[in-house]
Task: inverse folding
């Protein structure tokens, strides 16, 4: 074999094995199929053929759920694509007067982890859910949807019309001089200690912050600020002395108890579990996993015996309280919380973890594994989770 042929074979092997091109081909093809289905559906919608549009969107959803939502590398992108298809399908159902289908489709969309981190689509889903419930004659449910949306900072004429017809007052306005970023900074700077916890509790409970998950223009909220504060090194950041570290855990637990969603996504598809896993603070991981279990129980109680999130990737195997499928939710790079936890040592300022830090990492890893984390997953670069085990055991 000549040198040129050998190089081609080696490059082909690297492409298949290292970058996982072969393994990821079905998932990436599914994303492409879903995008084309969305384009076709949009064309049918503009032409007024809403039935044909729903059929196109449905085809895209089937392929995504079958091939892309279970692969960590494509999971975040698949969630966003699935969310758009569900939102569009709900609008078609409304146009066709099929109000129950619109309700079901919008409810499925709300069960997707990426939904709160996509403000435009989130608002569309809430508008369509409110309209469908109102048209179906369930006025109380329509009002509740409007109020929830307004508390999260969404404003739409559709909400105003439903609330006005019911003689109800719009909710969710911030006081003069306040903006959501103020609350994000509050979480960042005032997470540590009993006094600061009391201040945050007061802000949440006195109505200054209409909804605990209200986001700022950057897509962040008070929970995000608290998650960031976990990683603050007080010894190197005098401006934020007393703000970070393990002392933030009570604030974190309070925010979850106040209704903060432990499965929401932030920039890059990151989840709260990723932030706490990277902090190396075991109590923060435990608090987040417990909040996830509570959410699972609440969802199962709302819809007994059904798939609570409306997403095929969120169907718990066996145990109805299992959160295993949530523990492995990956970011845009295919990184899972377990991978992030195993990288904690490498990210230490000295490059070498102390014995205490190493023990903390192992405890975090154990909590994640006990919750169902899969140690055999790969990220977008084809790196297996177990590769990072050596960084901890070395």
Result:
């Amino acid at each position: 074999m000549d040198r040129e042929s050998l190089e081609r074979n080696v490059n082909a092997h690297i492409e298949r094995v290292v970058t996982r091109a072969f393994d990821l081909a079905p998932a990436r093809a599914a994303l492409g199929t879903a995008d084309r289905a969305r384009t076709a559906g949009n064309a049918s919608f503009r032409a007024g053929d809403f039935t044909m549009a729903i059929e196109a969107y449905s085809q895209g959803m089937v392929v995504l759920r079958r091939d892309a939502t279970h692969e960590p590398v494509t999971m975040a992108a698949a969630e966003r694509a699935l969310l758009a298809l569900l939102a569009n399908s709900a609008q078609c159902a409304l146009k066709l007067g099929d109000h129950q289908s619109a309700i079901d489709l919008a409810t499925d969309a709300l069960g997707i982890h990426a939904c709160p981190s996509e403000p435009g689509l989130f608002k569309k889903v809430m508008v369509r859910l409110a309209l469908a419930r109102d048209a179906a004659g369930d006025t109380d449910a329509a009002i509740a949807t409007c109020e929830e949306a307004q508390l999260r900072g969404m404003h739409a004429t559709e909400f105003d019309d439903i609330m006005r017809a019911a003689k109800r007052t719009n909710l969710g306005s911030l006081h003069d001089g306040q903006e959501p970023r103020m609350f994000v900074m509050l979480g960042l700077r005032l997470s540590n200690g009993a006094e600061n916890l009391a201040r945050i509790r007061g802000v949440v409970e006195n109505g200054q912050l209409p909804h605990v998950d209200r986001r700022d223009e950057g897509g962040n909220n008070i929970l995000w600020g608290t998650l960031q504060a976990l990683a603050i090194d007080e010894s190197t950041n005098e401006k934020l002395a007393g703000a970070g570290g393990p002392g933030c855990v009570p604030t974190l637990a309070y925010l979850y108890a106040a209704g903060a969603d432990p499965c929401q996504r932030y920039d890059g598809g990151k989840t709260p579990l990723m932030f706490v896993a990277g902090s190396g603070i075991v109590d923060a991981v435990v608090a987040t996993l417990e909040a996830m279990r509570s959410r699972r129980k609440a969802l199962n109680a709302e819809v007994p015996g059904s798939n609570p999130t409306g997403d095929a990737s969120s169907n718990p195997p066996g145990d109805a309280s299992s959160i295993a499928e949530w523990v492995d939710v990956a970011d845009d790079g295919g990184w899972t919380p377990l991978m992030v936890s195993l990288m904690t040592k490498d990210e230490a300022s000295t490059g070498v973890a102390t014995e205490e830090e190493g023990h903390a990492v192992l405890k975090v890893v154990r909590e994640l594994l006990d919750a169902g984390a899969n140690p055999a997953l790969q990220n977008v670069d084809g790196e297996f989770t177990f590769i990072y085990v050596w960084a901890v055991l070395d």
Observations:
- The two ends are 41 Å apart (CA to CA).
- Residues 93 and 116 are 22 Å apart (CA to CA).
- The chain has 18 helices and no strands.
